[in-house]
């Protein structure tokens, strides 16, 4: 899929996520499942879906929507402690509050 196709796909995905975030079609429903109202189960499932989709978005298309060029030469790596060493800073710089 080309760049424009992926952008349209992600934008439409986020529009749908926002549109169905509030379960307006469940208003007035007093159905209870496992002791909790059905609308609460909707929110639990919806938040799970949102977290999975956002994870996929950040792993594959974040640079497209944010206007970043993946080939701009900025690399992010992590050392053994898990601290970021992007833009030339060292892990020690990050521990001490930033680049110095």
TrEMBL record:
InterPro entries from the UniProt entry: DUF3311
Lipid biosynthesis among keywords: no
Region Disordered, annotated ranges: 69-100
UniProt key word Transmembrane: yes
Compositional bias ranges of the Polar residues kind: 75-84
Highest taxon listed in the record's lineage: Archaea
Keywords assigned by UniProt, alphabetized: Membrane, Transmembrane, Transmembrane helix
One Pfam family cited in the UniProt record for this chain: DUF3311
Bilayer-crossing regions: 7-27, 39-57
The name this protein goes by in its record: DUF3311 domain-containing protein
Source species: Halopenitus persicus
């Amino acid at each position: 899929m080309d760049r424009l196709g992926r952008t349209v796909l992600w934008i439409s995905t986020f529009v749908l996520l926002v549109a169905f975030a509030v379960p307006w079609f469940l208003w007035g429903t007093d159905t209870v499942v496992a002791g909790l109202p059905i609308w609460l189960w909707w929110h639990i499932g919806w938040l799970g879906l949102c977290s999975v989709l956002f994870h996929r978005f950040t792993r594959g298309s974040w640079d497209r929507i944010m206007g970043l060029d993946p080939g701009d030469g900025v690399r992010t790596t992590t050392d053994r402690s898990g601290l970021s060493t992007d833009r030339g800073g060292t892990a020690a710089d990050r521990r001490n509050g930033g680049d110095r």
